[in-house]
Specification:
Oligomer: single chain
Distance between the termini: 58 Å
Structural class: alpha+beta
Radius of gyration: 24 Å
Strand content: 15-25%
Largest sheet: 4 strands, antiparallel
Helix content: 40-55%
Shape: elongated
Length: 201
């Protein structure tokens, strides 16, 4: 299989973590102009980012230093969260009630945020904004039984199979933010649903 110039640049930056066009060109034995072209394209489409710009000694303009985006490097957060949830489930708490634990977790996630004093439309908009900061891809819509909050994405998708109690945490989080009881009506992946839907009362 032929390795493209862009794949070579990505492989180089995976090993070195950072590099300027000049350094990459020297390391890959390519022309600086060719490397700069590929760097521009890959920065524009999100495969690379500019880490910083450093000044060069003597004459010449400052040079951009490139790296892979942090998201591309990956992390171990889902495994850590899984281990913490498993550990919490095995240790006695002041109340062994799982709902109480999920409510406590929801309060930590909400932080200082509580929109209970606002009119309903404002509460919904602020709650959607807060949930989207946590990558839920949330929106709300009116319904015959009351407003519904809809999540187009589960930020815990890697964990939810082993920890369905996180859905209780989402309910508790909405209770905390809205000041109203939230009941989950649909769950992503259940009965063909592509969204999690919560009814507010």
């Amino acid at each position: 299989m032929m390795i493209t110039a862009r794949q070579k640049v990505l492989t180089y930056l995976t090993k070195t973590r950072t590099g300027s066009a000049r350094e990459i060109a020297r390391g890959l034995k390519m022309s600086a102009a060719t490397v700069r072209h590929h760097l521009r394209v890959m920065t524009a489409d999100g495969r690379l980012e500019i880490s910083f710009v450093r000044g060069r000694e003597g004459r010449g303009r400052p040079e951009k230093v490139y790296s892979l985006p942090q998201a591309a490097l990956g992390d171990n957060l889902s495994m850590l969260a899984d281990a913490l949830l498993m550990e919490a489930a095995t240790k006695p708490a002041p109340s062994a009630d799982e709902v109480v634990r999920m409510e406590a977790l929801a309060k930590r996630l909400a932080g200082e945020s509580s929109f209970a004093g606002h009119p309903i439309a404002r509460r919904l908009n602020l709650t959607v904004e807060k949930m989207n900061q946590m990558n839920y891809h949330a929106r709300w819509e009116a319904g015959p039984q009351g407003p519904r909050l809809i999540f187009g994405h589960c930020p815990y998708a890697k964990l939810i199979g082993r920890h369905p109690e996180l859905c209780q945490m989402d309910e508790a989080l909405l209770d905390q933010l809205m000041g109203d009881a939230a009941t989950q009506m649909f769950k992503i992946g259940t009965d063909g649903s592509t969204s999690c839907v919560f009814l507010l009362r």
